[in-house]
Amino acid sequence: MSLKAHAQGSTCPPTKPGVLRLYSMRFCPFAHRTRLVLHHKNIPHEVVNVNLKDKPDWFLALNPLGNAPVLQIDDKIVVESTATSEWLDDVYPENRLQPSDPYRRAWDRVLLEYMGKLTNGFYSAAGSPAAELQGKLDEIMKHFQFFEDKLRERGEGPFFGGSKPCMFDFFFWPTFERYPALAILQDSPAARLDPQRFPKLTALGKAMERLPAVKAAGLDAEKHSVFIKGYLAGKPDYDLFLEE
């Protein structure tokens, strides 16, 4: 199946009975979460990519919110990154990612809620004029400090899940993977994460990069920066780097 994004006027590829399908966008950090879970748990699936700026009618019929990710298998449809990821963890329970301890699970939900500050801060800084960049970076570093402190408090590591990644590690990673693109976009070494200030997050990043799921679903900072530059200019190219 082609990885090129389906836009308005396209026809939805026919589904197959019993085959799990992910409607995605290759550069979407939220769909990235679900792709990580699919790869980490080795769940067989197919992918249909969607142009999120010029959405097909058939995609809006599946998800009137018009965002990715969307999972479909037969007559079941699940939307939104956390819902799809947690549903996958429940339906395919091997290699469980959600914590069994209620307190840890509650705190992972708190961390997830806080993630919005970091993600919004990243995209705000990516499109910021040079005169405003340092103020944006100061805010981002406050958010990174929050996660650095939480990793230290857990006293485990290198993951938020301890010696093995948990669901929140995969919710956190897409923004963390994209963060190095900020220094490229702004041509600013000040945007880089200081490993001396953030040793726990630095160790987390190295551990995540070794995971097969991260290798399978990820892109490097240069590729992220090219897409984000087009996205911020209102001209996202959803088929970047595809040879087909």
UniProtKB/TrEMBL annotation:
Residues 101-232 form the GST C-terminal domain. Keywords: Oxidoreductase, Transferase. Its EC number is 1.20.4.2, 1.8.5.1, 2.5.1.18. Pfam families: GST_C_3, GST_N_3. It catalyses: RX + glutathione = an S-substituted glutathione + a halide anion + H(+); L-dehydroascorbate + 2 glutathione = glutathione disulfide + L-ascorbate; methylarsonate + 2 glutathione + H(+) = methylarsonous acid + glutathione disulfide + H2O. GO terms for molecular function: glutathione dehydrogenase (ascorbate) activity; glutathione transferase activity; methylarsonate reductase activity. The keyword Oxidoreductase applies. The keyword Oxidoreductase applies. Residues 18-96 form the GST N-terminal domain. GO terms for cellular component: cytoplasm. GO terms for biological process: glutathione metabolic process. PROSITE patterns: GST_CTER, GST_NTER. InterPro entries: Glutathione-S-Trfase_C-like, Glutathione-S-Trfase_C_sf, Glutathione_S-Trfase, Glutathione_S-Trfase_N, GST_C, GST_omega, GST_Omega/HSP26, Thioredoxin-like_sf. Belongs to the GST superfamily. Omega family. Exhibits glutathione-dependent thiol transferase activity. Has high dehydroascorbate reductase activity and may contribute to the recycling of ascorbic acid. Participates in the biotransformation of inorganic arsenic and reduces monomethylarsonic acid (MMA). This is Glutathione S-transferase omega. The lineage of its organism: Eukaryota, Metazoa, Spiralia, Lophotrochozoa, Mollusca.
